[in-house]
Protein: oligo-1,6-glucosidase
Amino acid sequence: MERAFWKEAVVYQIYPRSFMDSNGDGIGDLRGIISKLDYLQELGVDVVWLSPVYQSPNDDNGYDISDYYNIMNEFGTMADWEEMLEGMHRRGIKLMMDLVVNHTSDEHAWFVESRSSKENPYRDYYIWRPGKEDGRPPNNWGSFFSGPAWKKDEAAGEYYLHLFSTKQPDLNWDNPKLRTSIYDMMKFWLDKGVDGFRMDVINLISKVEGLPDGTGEGELGDGSPHYMNGPHVHEYLHEMNQEVLSKYDVMTVGEMPGVTIEEAVKYTDAAREELQMVFQFEHMHVDAGEQGKWELAPWTLHKLRDILHKWQMGLQHHGWNSLYLNNHDQPRMVSRFGNDGEYRVQSAKMLATLLHTLKGTPYIYQGEELGMTNVKFGSIEEYKDIETLNMYKDRMDRLGGDQKEIMESIYAKGRDNARTPMQWNDGPQAGFTSGTPWISINPNYKEINAAQAVQDPDSVFHYYKQLIALRKQHLVMVYGDYELLLPDHEFIYAYTRTLDQEQWLITLNFSGAPAFLELPEPYESAHKERVIGNYSEAGMEPHFLRPYEARVCRLS
Ligand code: TEU
Ligand code: CA
Structure:
């Protein structure tokens, strides 16, 4: 068993705009993060994944970078960043920065140059094409953020590709000069002491030659087969590994919409020298209809467990899983997969147990450790996320959609669910800011906040703290082989983790009702010693799990 820091670590994601505001402008910032490092140290996390803090016009809240070498003014200065890094390292916490290199902002100097003329040396840093004879864009690809993935630039007399917003032009990774510029930038941050990178949509960087039309009958087709896991993506990631990553002791995770297990094994097989782990998305579509995330569909434990099981088995001996149900792009897991009402605390703890006892590296998204929930703002004006606002406009204006139905989709799946400010206490603005927050605060902050959680031994926070501590004490949680039990149970997800002579049994009730538990032999009659659980041990019944009950037992 080859041990590795990044397999044993627990990662905490900070979305800086919403984490902590230190200067009263209503926007989270680096000095706000500095003021909360003791909180992170108490929780016990090993790594912070910091969403982008580089210069950006914030069309997509920092995922549209205009200068990779400087800190966004609203977030602070490079000196603040250096003080934050030093404070993390002093507490034994590593820093993984967000590397967004599939695209830049259209305000990046490279793009300003590139669009200025076809002869400009930066022209081929981006993907320019003439439109079709009939005036249509070069192909029929749709953007992730509604509308076409091409924008005509009059100055340049051609279209440029943008898989995301019109202010996020895609970089041309087929250009070796661009790749060298990216590698130089990565070295700049690694030389400053950064411990790793989370790589934004990194499996989209290689597009199929000729940029062929996507499938689909409408005016916009699905171009994803022509840019997901593209022809040169492994070549480029191996080159990045050889030119940069292999020269440092770093942790890497690639965010990969549409990645399959077969591809994930290739991206994360150590022998291939590419990345260490990936974020896959299959389980994030378990409650989506044919039309995508905004088409709400019921999910079942069968569907969720089948996906998680497939990935556990698929990467069991080659590669490594990233375990998450939350991030800045996803709704809050306790609202989506648990119960954010009567059983909020129990179900938040049950989902945490899942993420910390499956095989892989657990990722905690800010506020998840408090059991923070989704939000329902009173009007579309309170929503800020470009993905949501573009969809709303597209469906209302272009498709004459039903506003009530659209708002229901936003309540369930909108990214702003995860972007309401951290709830630090029950005081004004939840202790997030002394000013007016850039986005409204979830009104339930009076009951759900860090101050309450830290002093309550039965809080979700302390349960996370126990799970994280357990991981350091028991390598079976990290390296133990996973084996599924009860593959057909409607409400219970049950599995074992085995390392040498030690075997743990995990049983999780995903329903709000008691669930009958009968295990196959030898597990049924094995002696069980509870290691951790989200209910009192005294009330444990061998054949019933209480609503959203999680049990982790050592077998002997
Ligand atoms: O997200 C990539 C991505 O696929 C998202 O668009 C996600 O699938 C979708 O938002 C789910 O609703 C990354 C970043 O995490 C996201 O914040 C950025 O908006 C996007 O890339 C562009 O950089
Ligand atoms: Ca601020």
